[in-house]
Amino acid sequence: MKAIQLTASSLTAFRATELPDPKAGPGEVLVRLRAAALNFADVAVATGAFPGATFPMVPVADGAGEVAALGEGVDAMGLGLVVGDRVIPHFMPNWQDGAMTPRNIAAMRGITLPGSLADYVVVPATSLVTLPAHLDFVQGATLPIAATTAWNATRSAQLRPGSVVVLLGTGGVSIFALQFAKAAGATVIIASSSDEKLERARQLGADHLINYRATPAWDEQVLKLTEGRGADLVVETVGGATFARALNAAAMGGTIFTIGFVSGSAISIDLLPIIVKALRIIGNSTGSAADLAEAARAIAAHRIVPVIDRVFDIADTAAAYAELSAGGRHFGKLAIAH
Ligand SMILES: NC(=O)c1ccc[n+]([C@@H]2O[C@H](COP(=O)([O-])OP(=O)(O)OC[C@H]3O[C@@H](n4cnc5c(N)ncnc54)[C@H](OP(=O)(O)O)[C@@H]3O)[C@@H](O)[C@H]2O)c1
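Above: query sequence and NAP SMILES. Below: predicted holo C-alpha cells.
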C-alpha cells in the first residue's frame, strides 16, 4: 500500500513509500482510509514534544474511511459492521468506554500505532464509529480528537439553555465546542486574535465576540457581558497565557475544562478564585470510543457540519503541518485527502 512516513522528529521529514498491506486479525477490521485531519498533537509528535513515537512511522491520529475486510469473529461480535461501511477509527482504539486507565490510553493512532496517512489500517472492530450520514470522509476525519474533546467539554458542564460558555481561539476544538454549545442553547462568548475569524464565529452562532489582542483583559469583558456573573464553562484550549484569566472569567461553581497548552503548560496561579468560587477544574485527555460515538450522534442529530479551513492533498503533507504549526492562521480544522 501507499503511505507517507515521518522518518524523524521534524516537521519536514516526510517520505512517500510503499508498505506491506496489513491484514485484519481476529476481532479486527481492515479500513481503507480516505482522509485524515490534523491536531496540535500531530505537530507535537513531529517536533519531538510528544513522548512515545518511534520513527519511521505513519503519522496523523485522525482519519476516516470505509470497511475493506472483517477479521475472524467480527461478524459474531454483533457490531453490525459490513464491508463498505463508512467509519471513523478512534484515536485511542483500546479505550472503548468508561474511565481512562494507563493501559487503555497507551495505544494511540499516529503516535504509538500507525496513523492515517496510509491506504489501509487495521484496528479493533470495537474502536470504529459510524460516520454521520451527512458528512463526507474529510469532514468525518476531523471528529476523533477535536469533536470528542469538545463534546466532553460541553457535557462536563451539563449545559442548558442560557448557560454561558467562553471559548478561547478559533481552532478545531473551540469551533466544535461552539457548535455543540449552540445546539445546547447556551450563550457563547468567543475570543480570537482576528476580527475576521470572529465574524466567521458570529455566523456560526457566537453571541459575543472579543478580540483578545485589542482587549487583553478578555476576562473582565466576560464579566461585563454577564453582568458580573461570569461563565459556566471556560474551555481552556490555550494554557499558560490564559489560565489565570479563565479562573477570573468563571462564574461561581463554574467549570474550567483544561485541555490546551498551545501557550505552554507551566504556570503559577492564585488558588483563591478556585476556592472562593468553588470552581471545577476538569482535566481531559480526548475521550473514549463511546465518547466519540456520542459526539458523532450529536453531530448527526443537529446536522452539525465540521468547519474545515483547508484540505491538503496527501502529497502536500509537509505544507499541512507547516500551516498548523504556524499557529493562528487557520479557522477550525485542517485536513488531508487521500
Ligand atoms: N487534552 C485534550 O483532550 C485535548 C484534545 C484536543 C486538543 N487539545 C489541545 O487543545 C489545544 C487546542 O487544540 P486545537 O486543535 O483547537 O488547536 P488549534 O486548531 O491549533 O487552535 C489553536 C488556537 O488557539 C488560539 N490561541 C492561541 N493563543 C491564544 C491566546 N493567547 N488566547 C486565546 N486564543 C489563543 C488561536 O486562535 P485565534 O487564531 O482565533 O486567535 C489558535 O487558532 C491544543 O493545545 C491541543 O493540544 C487537548
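The chain has a mean pLDDT of 97.
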